[in-house]
Amino acid sequence: MIRWSLSARRVEGRAITNALHAAFLSPAGHVGIIHHGIYAPTRAEQRQYATRTRARHATNATFTSRNVHTKLQQTTSSTQSQYIFSFGCFLRHYHTVLLSTRCERLDLLDKMGCSTSKVSSEENSSKSAGGGRNDDYIEGVVCKDADIGENEMKAFQMGEVGKVLVVRQNGVLTALGSKCTHYGAPLETGALGDGRVRCPWHGACFNLKTGDIEDFPGVDSLPCFKVQVNSENNVVVRAKRSELKSSKRVKEMTPLNESERAHIVIVGGGPSGNSCAETLRQNGYAGKITMLCKEKFLPYDRVKISKILDAQIEQIQMRSDEFYKQNHIEVCRDSPATSLDTANKKIILKDGTCVPYSKLYVATGSTALRPKIPGVDLRNIFTLRDYEDAQKVHALLDAEKEVVVLGASFIAMEAAAYCQGKVKKVTVVGRDTYPFQKLLGEEIGAAVKCLFEGKGVNFIMNSGISEFQGPDMVQKAKLTTGETIKADIVILGTGSTLNTEFMKDSGVAMNSHGAVEVDEFLQTNVPNIYAGGDIANAPVFSWDNRKSAIGHYGLAQYHGRIAGLNLAGKQTCQETVPFFWTMLFGHGIRYCGHGAFDEILYSGDVKGLKYAAYFLKDGTVTAVSTCVAPGAAEFANRLASGKKLYRQDLGANYSAWMNKEKTSL
């Protein structure tokens, strides 16, 4: 029998729990959900508990849950241990309970929840002395309860292991990993939203209660740690050493059920396809998963190839080969799709292989555009779209070479920044006056151009290339002005085309640009076929749900998650908030939002690239760009909450709105 000792008391705010390991989750929903520290009893248990509490007005009632007993028997059949728990009930809402766990088997507590409970110092000491602490865990006082205000987050060092992020929201303390799982940004400098913390660098979001990643980039979630306030009002955190050090947690995956006949095929081995595959396994899907990759590599962090051309594939792969095997995700490399047969539910590959599917997710991304310029097929003229492109360019760089970069796009400018200092000369040829002019405006574009010129990069703007010259290998580039410049290596940063040609006769609706038409669930006009990433002409939540095809890395991963949830039967509407970034000579430029603008308001030092820029259309802020200064992540949180930002909201120095945002959570 499972014996629960109930102590009736009122809990202010939201009732929280410190609960058992996620191993006790019931896929069928017959027992209360126990997941990473958040326990929610079933409706039947809520009614039963509420009735007994009202009837007895007792401070020490007991009851038996046959369903929970059954579940625990299944998961701990090797033990006869009794588990005694101390509950505090939330009399007003009944839908959650405060659970302060006492459990002799502390190995079940390796993923304690991000919640607060009051404990006595004597109880804390006895638990430690009783063998609850071991070399796998670290426990200690991180601060006083009063040190964390409402809607405030702070990071505290725990020994020599690492930092823990402590957050108070709605009166509740939570403790999580302190670094973003993407590139390790300190989350204490990020933006706190309603139930989420957003990375200040690239916009990834993590749930405060579970640590789960909810917006991207990144692949891992944050670990959650047990946090308590003792009788001396000290905040005590208990954390697993390995998770505290890494600040990462891989969500549990559903094992393959060999008898399950469902087969979901993912066409595309990029960030979106990988995110979809993992989401399926994380959300109860036990059928077969096949991921069809165009390249011969496992999914990798594509954004690095234009920033770090010499990156090794093992360093940038999202997951190892062993990860996919362990989680029964079949990855077919060098297997691009050539046609889609929706009538017979088959994908045809370049070698003629037919891959049947029951449901399909298409995230094939785009291909770098090679403009129709005479001589463009000469050797040593490259695009930068995949890993092999970057490796080929890097192999040719030496102190005697002159590099010409055609275009002033983000990829083009990142490549120019990488090449500078490794070759004799780098020249950027662009059609506008300044880089990024159409997106970020003239002032920011001029500041970026000045930064590059200070590093030795040459510019030929308001121009283009009319011809590449050379007998076999490119030697010169003829400009549209008639001038000829030396070009030992050429990098093309002139846009991209969508990889949807194989779907042309499939019956899947596409627009005139080849983007696939999808709804708010990323479903196409053909049942059981979803599309996402670059190729999806999808509603943009932060843009009044108007449709657009946006080629952002983080957005592609987000689309993969939404598609995975819907494919797994958990209907979820996507709420897109576009966010992207670039890194140029150590200056990180961030951009959040989408849409045209007719006015730009600046805060800070634009020329020194320490600014926040607000792009407005008819008085409404459509986007925010920042460099060093805050604002992009905060704006993303505001858009995600469904709120707009108007000129009158900006306040003094165009930054007062951020302080109001914190107090309004």
How would you explain this protein's 3D organization?
- With 665 residues, the chain is an alpha/beta fold.
- Helices cover 20% and strands 30% of the residues.
- The strands form 11 sheets. Strands 7, 8, 9, 10, 11, 16 and 17 form a 7-stranded mixed β-sheet that branches. A 5-stranded parallel β-sheet has the order 20-19-18-24-36.
- A hairpin with a 6-residue loop joins strand 30 (465-469) and strand 31.
- The longest helix is centred in the C-terminal third of the chain and has 15 residues, at 553-567.
- The relative contact order is 0.09.
- Mean pLDDT is 85; it is low at 1-47, 49-114 and 117-132.
Describe how the helices and strands are arranged.
Elements: E1 3-7, E2 33-35, E3 38-40, H1 43-56, E4 61-63, H2 66-75, E5 84-89, E6 97-102, E7 118-119, H3 121-132, E8 137-144, E9 152-158, E10 162-169, E11 172-177, E12 191-192, E13 196-198, E14 205-207, E15 213-215, E16 224-230, E17 234-240, H4 241-246, E18 263-267, H5 271-282, E19 288-292, H6 313-316, H7 321-326, E20 329-332, E21 337-341, E22 346-349, E23 354-356, E24 359-362, E25 366-368, E26 381-383, H8 387-396, E27 402-406, H9 410-419, E28 425-429, H10 437-440, H11 442-454, E29 458-460, E30 465-469, E31 476-479, E32 484-486, E33 489-492, E34 496-498, E35 516-517, E36 529-531, E37 536-540, E38 546-548, H12 553-567, E39 579-584, E40 587-593, E41 599-605, E42 610-617, E43 620-627, H13 632-640, H14 656-663
Parallel strand pairs: 1-5, 7-16, 18-19, 18-24, 19-20, 24-36, 26-33, 27-28, 27-33, 28-29, 35-37
Antiparallel strand pairs: 1-4, 2-3, 5-6, 8-17, 9-10, 10-11, 11-16, 12-13, 13-14, 14-15, 16-17, 21-22, 22-23, 25-34, 30-31, 31-32, 37-38, 39-40, 40-43, 41-42, 42-43
Helix pairs in contact: 5-12
